[in-house]
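tool_call predict_complex ligand=magnesium ion
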Amino acid sequence: MSGDRITFGIKGLDEMLSGGLIPGTVASVIGQYGCGKTNFALYFLWSGLLNGENVIHITLEERTGRIEYYMRDKGWDITPYLGKSLTIVNLDPSDFNLAINSVKNELPELIKRTGAHRVTIDPVSLFEDLFDDDATRRREMMRFLDRLRDLNCTSLLTSEADKENEFSSRYNLIEYLSDTVILLRYARGDSVSDIHLAIEVVKMRMSGHSREVKPYEILKESMIVYTEANVF
Ligand SMILES: Nc1ncnc2c1ncn2[C@@H]1O[C@H](COP(=O)(O)OP(=O)(O)O)[C@@H](O)[C@H]1O
Ligand SMILES: [Mg+2]
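tool_result ok
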């Protein structure tokens, strides 16, 4: 795989991204609940850890203990990394001022202090929920993503899909602000039992990428993107 790219370690997905994410950019993974957003985020971090990188996972949904449990349950031995190259932070989005301050001020400091190469925020849509109006949300998110880019880490933000439109994130915003957008969705065939998970790279600034929709599977320890296959 090309050396200047940040790889997922998921062969098919890295191929779709022409080798991986571009260092210092912000990617978003958009999909309905259960599509595997958290799995993709954690796998992205695990690949970084195996490469000797420093990584940070910000979870707005689950306690840090749960994330540690998921990673161990996947058969990944995080013990040597935990508290060293792996930092997991739980942010409570119910406390508005605390959450805003943590994301805007403390996270950049943490990234600098730990020299993080990879940062995931899961799901960023819960952070977006904190802003009352579209104009403030857009302005704040734009600033925040620029801040992440300035810190030279490669970021992966997950977002729930809009309830009415599975091709869009909840606020129809993060896909415009991100450099790379990966869309996950359920693809249904003719028969009711014919359901696949489908992945698509819909946008990648400064790079060529695949525009094909490919099936993927979440396995216990890994994820597979079938680039040789079509969804139906
Ligand atoms: N060990 C496993 N083996 C197979 N599939 C799994 C395993 N663990 C999780 N999954 C699948 O992953 C889904 C949850 O993925 P998750 O990343 O939490 O989704 P999201 O964050 O998009 O809501 C589950 O519904 C299940 O289908
Ligand atoms: Mg999740």
